[in-house]
Amino acid sequence: MKQLIAALFLFTYISSTTEFHEALRLPLLFEHYAEHKTKVNDLTFWEFLTMHYKTDVAHDDHDNQLPFKVPGHEFTASIVALPAPKVSLIESTLSIKVTHTSSYREAHFESQLQDIFQPPRI
Description:
Blueprint lengths: L1 H16 L2 H4 L2 H14 L5 H10 L55 H7 L6
């Protein structure tokens, strides 16, 4: 059952991302290979594919009817939307007692400063 569902998903994905009408023309590819095979006995299928798809030279109009030979003008984009992960933050309190120790000692010279700002005495 899992294989059937996997095959169904694969078929759905491939038919939506490729030009499906090109896949329907695959029998033409095998017929054209059979024609070449009658002319050249030792022609392998890989050599046939290389001859027709690696080079841009079309031998006849029948070559342009092969599947995936002429590029299509469709645009296909696969978009997958994943749900955002749930993140929970735990509030924690951390109490730190801060003490400042310094070797500098403040000196208050208020009495001396007040004497400076006194009006002159006569």
